[in-house]
């Protein structure tokens, strides 16, 4: 397996994880899902967890687009 194939697999997993995260937050928090995602992104950023911050920011953007 080439290095680029391994990276593609990792990116695919990350995209699936991001989409699942968005769905779970929406199911649990409903109309407040975007607010929860934004708060989690900020908490992750201040804790120095950049990858978590990115994932929560992606979820926030997608959830915000759903609500408009």
What does this structure look like?
With 68 residues, this protein is mainly alpha-helical. It has one domain (3-67). It is 87% helix and 0% strand. It contains three helices and no strands. The protein has helices at residues 3-29, 33-46, 50-67. The longest helix is centred in the first third of the chain and has 27 residues, at 3-29. The protein is globular. Residues 1-8 have low confidence and may be disordered.
Uncertain runs: 1-8
Tally of extended strands? 0
Total number of domains: 1
Mean pLDDT: 82
N- to C-terminal distance:
43 Å
Radius of gyration: 13 Å
- Count of alpha and pi helical runs: 3
Shape: globular
Helix content: over 70%
| Portion in strands | under 5%
Order of helices and strands: HHH
**Class per helix and strand makeup:** mainly alpha
Let me know the largest β-sheet. none
Keywords:
mainly alpha, globular, 68 residues
Q: Topology, please?
A:
Elements: H1 3-29, H2 33-46, H3 50-67
Give a concise summary.
The protein has 68 residues and is an all-alpha fold. The chain has 3 helices and no strands.
């Amino acid at each position: 397996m080439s290095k680029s194939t391994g990276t593609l697999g990792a990116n695919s997993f990350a995209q699936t994880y991001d989409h699942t995260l968005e769905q779970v937050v929406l199911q649990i928090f409903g109309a407040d899902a975007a607010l929860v995602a934004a708060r989690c992104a900020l908490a992750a950023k201040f804790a120095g967890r950049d990858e978590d911050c990115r994932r929560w920011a992606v979820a926030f953007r997608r959830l915000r687009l759903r609500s408009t």
